């Protein structure tokens, strides 16, 4: 019996053997089956069990498996002993790896999703018990391997051909390892994949599943409830209501709150239930634009001026409750399709001389920079939280950016006329806009991300007029 709690790895990646002290006295014994704090400190995943199962094995020789499911398990015995064995059925190099160990009440094993699980009772009346982190579903079939598979060669203490071994007909008919389709890993899902940012994300995550409003209307609660979230490890939400001025109108206000407030709250609930990482995007509009030396930091209190910023702030608060979340706060996004830079480029080539506001200061964010930062935070396993992301460089007003676009388009920058937000808004129904949109990039930099200078990104963007950001 173990004197203290210990956790050991095995040849199957992620399959962990946990040995726990069993406290014995005159009455019997006691042990902690699952102790989240102590066990996660030793490396057991915080796997969030939602169902506990017991299986009673009347006689020595009862043999069950080899079954893999798309959820993690934590297995042990309450009485008796089993010889337990596992076969890795996940896609990848470790497919087919095996491990076996005897389990008594002092031993538990963490079995990761996709690893086939089997055991043989070594004593009459053995009670095998396991915790799982998803509810069993009858509408799906899962990989199983024959207990007697000649490749896996599990050393069962009681021969499967002996009269002592009790095996169900179903388990006897399971296929050989060579006939099993490996279980695919949980995937990445991009929501809002048809939007400006969504299209860039689709290019950055070429293996991701893409979803737009036609495939899944995120405001449809029934559709959200039916969606197979368990198939995904990471959900990247690029869907939003981004029509800042429309959001001030009665119809737009509802749409903005639905998509920017309620949808992230629903996704937060989904993320916690399915233990997935939720990536979400925020905006400088959650701030009132008061000048902050060095730019707005991630932990600044919200102070949105308009409905768009208010609805986005609500979404941020909801997403921030998710255990594994990244909120990438960005400003002045430039991607494919109509946007400020393209409009200025067009006006420059058409010989026009636009009036552009000179009192809103910020930095451009090209969508490939934001996608790259998304991939980076996920790849390095950055601490969950909010990260500001824009292209680095000197803060500029919209008028200064327009002048630079004119210059790069062969026009005289002086052809861009400065105006004020007040003058520009006269006679127009515009949402209030923050004047100081500059975001501090220190936190992102501390994760090892090197940004692409905004002026360099602008030159590259303008030189690829039809393809957008390369
Ligand atoms: N644009 C900016 O300057 C800016 C600045 C700061 C932060 N941001 C943030 O950056 C993120 C991306 O913005 P963006 O400019 O890429 O947005 P976008 O181009 O307006 O795209 C929004 C996407 O949301 C999808 N969508 C709308 N309603 C939906 C629904 N009911 N169900 C599912 N999808 C739905 C749209 O899909 P359909 O086309 O299929 O309807 C569209 O693809 C947002 O979070 C935004 O708030 C943007």
Notes on the structure:
Helices cover 25% and strands 23% of the residues. It has a six-stranded antiparallel sheet, with no helix packed on it. The chain has a six-stranded parallel sheet with strand order 14-13-15-16-17-22, with helices on both faces. It has a four-stranded antiparallel sheet with strand order 6-11-8-9, with no helix packed on it. The chain is of the alpha/beta class and 470 residues long. The protein has two domains: 6-179, Sandwich (Jelly Rolls); 187-462, 3-Layer(aba) Sandwich (Rossmann fold), CATH 3.40.50.720. Strand 15 (232-237), helix 5 and strand 16 form a beta-alpha-beta unit. 43% of the residues are buried. The longest helix has 25 residues, at 250-274. The N and C termini lie far apart (61 Å). The site of NADP nicotinamide-adenine-dinucleotide phosphate (NAP) has 23 residues, from helix 3 and strand 16. Catalyzes the reduction of dTDP-6-deoxy-L-lyxo-4-hexulose to yield dTDP-L-rhamnose. Belongs to the dTDP-4-dehydrorhamnose 3,5-epimerase family. It comes from Nocardioides bizhenqiangii. Residues 187-449 form the RmlD-like substrate binding domain.
């Amino acid at each position: 019996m173990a004197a203290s709690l210990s956790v050991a790895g095995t040849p199957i990646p992620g399959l962990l053997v946990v040995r726990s002290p069993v406290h014995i006295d005159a009455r019997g014994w006691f042990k902690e089956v699952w102790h989240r704090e102590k066990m996660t400190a030793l490396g057991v995943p915080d796997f969030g069990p939602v169902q506990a199962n017991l299986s009673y094995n009347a006689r020595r020789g009862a043999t069950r498996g080899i079954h893999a499911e798309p959820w993690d398990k934590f297995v042990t015995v309450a009485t008796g002993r089993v010889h337990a064995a596992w076969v890795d059925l996940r896609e990848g190099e470790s497919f087919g790896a095996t491990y076996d160990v005897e389990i008594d009440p002092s031993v538990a094993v963490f079995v990761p999703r996709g690893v086939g699980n089997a055991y043989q009772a070594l004593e009459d009346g053995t009670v095998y018990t396991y915790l799982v982190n998803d509810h069993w579903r009858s509408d799906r079939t899962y990989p199983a391997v024959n207990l007697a598979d000649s490749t896996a060669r599990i050393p069962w203490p009681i021969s499967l051909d002996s009269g002592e071994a009790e095996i169900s007909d179903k388990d006897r008919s399971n296929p050989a390892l060579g006939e099993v389709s490996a279980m695919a890993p949980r995937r990445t899902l991009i929501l809002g994949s048809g939007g400006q940012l969504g299209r860039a994300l689709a290019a950055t995550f070429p293996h991701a599943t893409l979803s737009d409003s036609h495939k899944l209307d995120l405001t449809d609660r029934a559709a959200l409830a039916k969606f197979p979230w368990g198939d995904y490890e990471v959900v990247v939400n690029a869907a939003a209501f981004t029509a800042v001025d429309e959001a001030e109108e009665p119809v737009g206000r509802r749409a903005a709150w639905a998509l920017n407030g309620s949808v992230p709250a629903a996704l937060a609930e989904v993320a916690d239930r399915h233990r997935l990482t939720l990536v979400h995007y925020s905006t400088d509009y959650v701030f009132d634009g008061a000048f902050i030396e060095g730019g707005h930091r991630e932990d600044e209190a919200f102070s949105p001026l308009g409905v768009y910023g208010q609805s986005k702030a609500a979404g941020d608060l909801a997403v921030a409750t998710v255990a594994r979340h990244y909120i990438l706060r960005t400003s002045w996004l430039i991607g494919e399709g109509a946007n400020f830079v393209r409009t200025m480029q067009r006006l420059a080539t058409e010989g026009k001389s636009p009036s552009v506001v000179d009192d809103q200061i910020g930095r451009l964010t090209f969508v490939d920079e934001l996608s790259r930062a998304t991939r980076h935070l996920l790849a390095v396993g950055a601490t969950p939280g909010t990260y500001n992301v824009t292209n680095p460089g000197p803060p500029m007003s919209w008028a200064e950016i327009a002048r630079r676009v004119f210059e790069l388009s062969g026009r005289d920058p002086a052809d861009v006329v400065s105006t004020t937000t007040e003058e520009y808004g006269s006679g127009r129904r515009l949402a209030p806009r923050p004047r100081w949109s500059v975001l501090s990039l220190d936190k992102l930099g501390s994760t090892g991300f090197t940004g692409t200078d905004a002026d360099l990104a602008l030159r590259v963007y303008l030189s690829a007029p039809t393809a957008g950001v390369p």
